[in-house]
Write a structure and sequence with these properties.
alpha+beta, globular, homodimer, two-stranded antiparallel ribbon, oxygen-dependent coproporphyrinogen oxidase, 8 helices
């Protein structure tokens, strides 16, 4: 990987490659701006609900900053509204040293455990069982190496969820992948299916999407562009999927199905999710880490 | 540890020590008879609810047998009633070989991983936030060694839970310990406090009780008697605690508090509980393993 001060002359013209810290700042700035646009898009959906009950005002994000004792911190943005029962959009930039037992698991961290990490994470739990839940996360991690990771995946909570929702979600991510490398989509889709899998139940968490990690092609700009494309694809498709089902009513049985599916969602996050484990092990903010937990779930 | 065919002549008279398999059968028979008495006591509480709404019949346990592909099986008894929103009383007797990565963690299993295990597990989630949730589990495990483990702990779900409930629960367990060894209670109480702890939140799951594991004093009958005493203590005190609060009404805010506490309960079980991990790793019955999960929980 090119280090600070090296140059990238693919185009024949020497282009300064930013040092690692500057690259991180660049990624962090992007995550914050993406957060602003995602929050605005989801608030617009709160406003777009047809015939809202007068007792239910449109939700608005509330932001809360938190500081990580070991270094860095973040901003949690949470909205509890009439379309979204709970949705969190968190950004964080943290640094420090991994605990000894965690180092072996992280590329480039074995020696001194020093790390720097920045990312954005979105988890939406809509009120309506007809609106799919969604998760999107992208991150940039720097140890003695540096890479991007992330992805987006959809979890329908309605037994009769239309196949079109799934197809359109995947198509958006596939198009984002194609801009960087046509090989990414089949590879990252499979990775997602394997990752969001509950072995104890023999079932996937939802209908998948893409998942990637340790992405370091040797070209920071290229990998960063891909990560931005994933964010843009999410921002374009998810609000569209929500809009399709706004104003549809649901039955008590459909709500019950949703709450049971949310139980499986909680099982995955606590038993298997790498991001949750990463957060808990690095002393991240508990509320931010567990923002992904469903507002209500059932194990009947 | 005495092997099959050895004798125990503490009393001056040679007493045949049952071989491991027979000891296991003895423990298994006890767990099943304790299960019957616990189920009867909890069904009696369903009948004892004062002024029950006519639309809510008294709950009754439903039993379902399950077979473990690798060897053994169990019986799940579940009741969804008007006092108990969900309560499970499971017994299981399973055997086989631990997976390679699990062997190192289990005493006496390193060589071939062969194990035999039998136990009873109770988790009660009452409807009323004023009635504490409870967990009791005792088990006998045989590898190339053999031991008992288990305990009982209480989880009040009411912010204003009376200190007397906690005191009486602990007193019952302390008395059970005292019959075997006065040193057990302080040791096993502390173990419980350490075990049922959520490090990411810096809080205990509930108000504790006792927890013990790898109990092998060298005297099977003595250790088995202690384990029976734990079961008897649970059976005597928990229904009494429930009875105290039967018929008390509760507010929506108290229910909300209960549902949030139940979320913490779910976090503990999925993130940290050894029994859950044991079950998932040994291919136990998913419904039986996750019977401990709360029927409804919130992460607001």
């Amino acid at each position: 990987m090119a280090e600070s001060g090296a140059t990238n002359d693919d185009a024949g013209v020497p282009v300064p490659v930013p040092p690692l810290a500057l690259r991180g700042a660049t990624a962090g700035t992007w995550f914050a701006s993406l957060r602003d646009r995602i929050c605005a898009a989801l608030e617009a959906l709160e406003d777009a609900l047809p015939d809202p009950p007068p007792s239910e005002p449109a939700g608005r994000f509330e932001r809360r900053e938190w500081v990580r004792p070991g270094g860095g911190g973040g901003v949690m943005a949470v909205m509890r509204g009439r379309v979204f029962e709970k949705v969190g959009v968190n950004i964080s930039t943290v640094w420090g040293a991994f605990s000894a037992d965690f180092r072996a698991q992280i590329p480039g961290a074995a020696e001194d455990g020093a790390f720097w990490a920045s990312g954005i994470s979105v988890v939406a739990h809509p009120r309506s069982p007809k609106v799919p839940a969604v998760h999107m996360n992208t991150r940039h991690i720097v140890t003695s190496r540096a890479w991007f990771g992330g992805g987006a995946d959809l979890t329908p909570m309605w037994a009769a969820a239309p196949a079109r929702d799934t197809a359109d979600f995947h198509a958006a991510l596939k198009a984002a992948c194609a801009r960087s490398d046509p090989g990414y989509y089949p590879r990252f889709k499979q990775w997602c299916d394997e990752y969001f899998f509950l072995p104890h139940r023999g079932e996937t968490r939802g209908v998948g999407g893409i998942f990637y990690d340790h992405l370091d092609s040797g070209d920071f700009e290229r990998d960063f562009a891909f990560t931005r494309d994933v964010g843009e694809a999410f921002l374009a498709i998810y609000p569209e999927l929500v809009r399709r089902h706004l104003g549809q009513s649901w039955t008590a049985a459909e709500r019950e199905h949703q709450l049971v599916r949310r139980g499986r969602y909680a099982e995955f996050n606590l038993l298997y999710d790498r991001g949750t484990q990463f957060g808990l092990r690095t002393g991240g903010n508990i509320e931010a880490i567990l923002m992904s937990m469903p507002p209500e779930a059932r194990w009947p």
